[in-house]
Amino acid sequence: MHDIAQSASQFINLDAVTIIYLFIVGFVGGLVSGFIGSGGAFVLTPAMMSLGVPGLVAVASNMCHKFPKALIGSIKRAKYGQVDVKLGVVLGISAEAGVLYGAHIQESIKKTFGDAGSNLYVSMSFVVILAVVGGFVLRDAWKTYKSGNANAEEKVTKLARWVQSINIPGTMVYFKSLNARISVLFTIPLGFATGMLAATIAVGGFIGVPSMIYVMGAPSLMASATELVIAFVMGLGGTFKYAMHGMVDIRLAMIILAGSLFGIQLGAIGTTYVKPFMIKVVMGIIMVIVLFSRALMVPVYLSQLHLIQPMADGTVKLLKNTSFAIMIAALAIGAFIVLKAMWQGRRAERLSSQEALGHVKA
Amino acid sequence: MSAFQNKTKKRPYGAMIFAGLVSCALYAALLIKQDVVNSYFSLGGAYAFLPIATAFVFSFVHGSFTGNFWTVLGVEAAKKKKEVH
Predict the structure, then answer these.
(1) What are phi and psi of B81, to 5 degrees?
(2) How confident is the model at residue B2 (pLDDT cuts 50, 70, 90)?
């Protein structure tokens, strides 16, 4: 890895258009991350690569913008009482181990099956995990919406009640977000899986947040805020690993950070205006749309591995561009829902304060 | 009463302008001196602390600017915080 990054010559030249492009993608990614705890990163790596940035430099620079962004986002959301720092750090440490193991698996696959094999593995992970978890999250959000109980307090799932009921002496830790003691023997594999997913598809939160909600019993708002702590721990460790090999293009990382710090503050503010189930709505919708984006690429990699008939160059290009466009659309739709929900929440608050003022005058 | 307090609440213009200027200076330095920056930051090894320290400094300064930016625009958290205990 060090050889690839021996010189800074592989860092791209930056022009005004590139800077504005990265700033905007960073802003939208930050907005979504501030709201659901993660989610912007999966677009940023391909976005950088579309500018000609080598894959590893894109991953490294993405990591380097992720941890300071998560830090600022978690500080902001901690002010609203939504962060469980202890749970975030405990999950973050095991997630770090998951990142290292996930990266090791990636390297082995790349060595054995080449780039196409590695890409197929990443895309299949996207499709399978996002279909299962995304489908579940969206179904749950839809059920809450249909039941008319969107304002009611979230119920702890049966699975989470069972997890909280298991007492394994010497491993029990109290977490304020759960208002219960659970065994770290449950948090370790969940954190590990979060890290493995982060190393594979760049967004550990798609496992981290649902597992905190459905397996441990954390409220949605706290789960999404605590995910930012996990992202900080993972991002810091990951950045260090890549920076040791000189892979971080700090210019790219800081330009994306410039946009994402505007976004993450706004996304964090947005969480104070919405009903908790909106976290699940945004997360589920993004996951399902991204799933289609990656599914489109599966035949391309299968043909590169000669597992199906070779595809024409034009078809490959079309599928690649459509897949990237759907990914951008997923993020844009997520950002639109966040902004709309926030706008409606602010309007409702303004109206109620005007009404209250009217009553006082009367 | 609360609406009145809201209207008269002091907005952090000074803090926003100060953090904004420092942030601009940091970004200007990074982009103007990008060749020097790239040559040191890509060395790896013990130089790994450089991108990490830079990320912390930029996030502190620019994070303070963006936070105050939304406050100055009046985009703040809902008055009734959804705190979870």
Answers:
(1) -65, 140
(2) very low
| ipTM score for this prediction | 0.88
What does the pLDDT look like over A251-310, one tens digit per residue?
Answer: 999 999 999 999 999 999 999 998 888 999 999 999 899 889 889 989 999 998 899 988
Structural domain includes residue A3: no
Give the span between the Cα atoms of B63 and B20, in whole angstroms.
Answer: 10
Compute the distance between CA of residue A110 and CA of residue A116 in angstroms, rounded to an integer: 8
Outline where A130-249 has alpha helix (H).
Answer: 135-147, 158-165, 184-201, 205-210, 220-243
On whether residue A361 sits in a domain, the answer given is no
Rounded-to-integer distance, Cα A269 and Cα A258, Å: 18
Q: Which structural domain, as residue segments, surrounds residue A89?
A: 8-302+311-350
Residue of A87, A250, A275, A360 to mutate, interface with B, max B Cβ within 10 Å = A250
| Domain ranges across chain B | 14-72
Inter-chain Cβ pairs, chain A and chain B, closer than 8 A: 148
B62 contact residues in A (CB cutoff 8 A):
257-258, 261
Instruction: Report chain A residues whose CB lies below 8 A from the CB of B59.
Output: 68-69, 71-72, 257, 261
